[in-house]
Amino acid sequence: MMRARSLLARIALIFLALSEVEGQLSSTFYDTTCPNLSSTVQTAVNSAVATEARMGASLVRLHFHDCFVNGCDGSILLDDSTNITSEKTARPNNNSVRGYDVIDTIKSQVEGICSGVVSCADIVALAARDSVVALGGPSWTVLFGRRDSLTANQTGANSDLLPSNSSLSNLISGFSAKGLSTQDMIALSGAHTIGQARCITFRTHIYNETNINSTYATSVQANCPFNGGDDNLSPLDVQTPTTFDIDYYTNLINQQGLLHSDQELFNNGSADSQVTTYANDQTTFFSDFAAAMVNMGNISPLTGTSGEIRTNCRVPN
Fold this sequence. Notes:
Radius of gyration: 21 Å
Low-confidence stretches: 1-22
Helix content: 40-55%
Shape: globular
Mean pLDDT: 93
Strand content: under 5%
Largest sheet: 2 strands, antiparallel
Strand order of the largest sheet: 1-2
Distance between the termini: 48 Å
């Protein structure tokens, strides 16, 4: 009886070890099955960013909004259907998240070199890295092995994607709920050194709040009237909106954060010291940002036999 129990225990440990290995992402996942993946995606991303520099920020944001809802599973890419209520029309995403067509193009090219092998979720993760590099930011080793979800979660998108009026405590708790540290949150917020935001997301901050440089507020108000113009765009980093650098943090110290949630990172709170560090040390910011992107890319991926490898990123197979 004891030998039988011992044998069963050993078998259980073996299955546990196998499941842990299966659930891990790997930098070499496609080395033999799709060896030209990285160069194919990089070429496509560089072309898209050369055509429109803002697309780099959009592809980074696409990865973020995917991972924060049910994990990094490509669910944000699914269109509405009779069985799916798309995350694309959730409040934080509707008329805001972009880059779907670029992912479609990349997926088509990847299918041409290794059909049925690479998930849409992995393509989104790789495109985010290549976008940051294309705009002058750091590189990092992307881990692969994610599989694509079979459905979307619009309710989760509405609840888990933090709004632009979030307080510092809400930001900390929201990221913590996804397994990300406060340092990860502050570093990932640095992605706002590129890209633009719609007037509706920052109107209250520039008109009704006091923790903002008055000259800066006035300049932004010129393109964001008190009434109307909800979709008018302003750069998140007023100095270098298409260069991945540390100006975002410098702007926060100067009370030039465009969003309420941006300025919360430097507002006499616990995040102030980390913002100051990044504003004075690009090497540290780049290193922390790269590490935080890997951490974010590890949020609850589908692996092994879960999910599927979609042929078309917009619909389940």
